[in-house]
Design brief:
heterodimer, A: mainly alpha, 0% strand, B: mainly alpha
């Protein structure tokens, strides 16, 4: 499929899916803001990165751009390292 | 095919919303992690399945499969490490928790601070040896 032709149902579905994703992201941001400990915030950031991967898939569907899937793969690769590093930092107890 | 793709897309987005709700409403970090890991992984899997159904090209399908496999492999590992770290830091459990199987088994496995080692003194040979109590006397 070239970027010019996108099925109209797909655009509609992408709008609805984007709305649901945005609601989920707002809740995740709330957890980042109020999380009592650092571990809660790290879990929320991990979930947020996964949601961004899903949002990139939605935008790729709505516009017919395949390149965004590469970025989704790169984000999925990078965030794992960050989560593991933050887990080690939490276990050392440097930050609360 | 397009109907199936839209259905999978909406299902994935709904799973993401459920994940956000679980993150916000669950009482405890461990239960929150339970909501977060599974919901987010499954949501992304459904969304990438939708992209593979729409584009129907080998590259897109391959990239989506690799991304889903990687997320399914790494999300449990990251959640396990985080839960272990939070438990070792004595994060309180939920009040209504029934069981605490990790009590006494999980503790801090890395040194608490990464203090740089004291540089060796010049002039004295091995100053640590002199301080050691001798046994013969």
């Amino acid at each position: 499929m070239t970027p010019g032709e996108v099925h109209p149902w797909l655009v509609w579905g992408a709008w609805v899916a984007g709305g649901l994703l945005a609601a989920g992201m707002v809740l995740t941001f709330l957890r980042i803001a109020l999380g009592p400990t650092l571990a809660d915030r790290v879990v929320a950031v991990d979930v947020l990165a996964t949601m961004i991967t899903g949002a990139l898939a939605v935008v790729a569907l709505a516009t017919g751009t395949q390149l965004l899937l590469d970025i989704a793969l790169a984000i999925a690769l990078i965030v794992f390292l960050g989560t593991v590093a933050m887990a080690m930092t939490i276990e050392r107890g440097i930050f609360k | 095919m397009i109907v199936l793709a839209v259905l999978f897309l909406l299902l994935g987005a709904a799973l993401m919303l459920v994940t956000g709700l679980g993150l916000m409403r669950m009482p405890d970090i461990f239960t929150r992690m339970h909501a977060a890991t599974k919901g987010a992984s499954l949501g992304v899997a459904f969304m990438l399945l939708a992209t593979a159904l729409v584009f129907q090209e080998t590259g897109v399908t391959l990239k989506g499969t690799i991304t889903v496999l990687f997320i399914f492999l790494t999300a449990p590992v990251a959640a396990n490490l985080l839960a272990r770290a939070a438990y070792a830091q004595k994060t309180p459990l939920w009040k209504k928790s029934v069981m605490d199987e990790g009590r006494g088994k999980i503790s801090i496995s890395v040194p608490p601070t990464s203090r740089p080692r004291r540089p060796a003194l010049r002039g004295k040979s091995n100053p640590g040896k002199a301080r050691r109590p001798r046994r013969g006397r």
